[in-house]
Automatic annotation (TrEMBL):
Belongs to the methyltransferase superfamily. RNA methyltransferase RsmG family. One of its GO terms (molecular function) is methyltransferase activity. This is Ribosomal RNA small subunit methyltransferase G. It comes from the Bacteria. The gene is rsmG. One of its GO terms (biological process) is methylation. Its main location: cytoplasm. Its EC number is 2.1.1.-. It comes from Saccharopolyspora antimicrobica.
Amino acid sequence: MTEPAAARVVFGDRLDLAERFHEMLQEHGIRRGLIGPRELDRLWERHLLNSAVIAELLPPNCRVLDVGSGAGLPGIPLAIARPDLNLTLLEPMARRVTWLQEVITELELNVEVVRGRAEEGPVRERLADQDVVTARAVAPMERLAKWCLPLLRQGGRLLAMKGESAAEELERDAAAIAAVGGGRGEVVSCGVGALEVPTTVVVVERVAATRNASGRRRDGARRTRKDRGR
């Protein structure tokens, strides 16, 4: 399948890398349990381009963590479209970690792969203070916020790729998001004018650390005397 015209706009002079990733998904995706059979004919629009256009929300040279990267979405398309990013892919399943490492080697991408889950203590220690955390089809916003916001620096942003019900989900889980340090989220569209169906992203900024009953912030810092008086 020939790539759509939008691919040349989105990937520019790195289109050849996107084409190779597309080929790898076509060749191995179903057999290795990375994509479903129905996805083969819509890899460009639904997966590669859908993922890559969220790059318009990323500042230059920022630290980005892709949580639950799976087949490498959105992480690999982002790495192709934006080689300036300091990108890490986080994935708990060994066979998918192996796949991600194969893709990175094949495409010669400067990307790190870490095996683990966002909620694990060692992962949070190793990957703390990210500028941006991305997640695609991982979990509802309540759980995503709980897992991902602690990985962000204050002022960092969670970019959760969602479907048509994004606004309803954000409203439903607003209290839970605030409870773990998230600000008031917003729903934005990426790839407008380039994609037939733009990518819907819920953006949540980490505005504060949260505290637990022991008097420790959930980012590990103890409450100050001033905090205790509040």
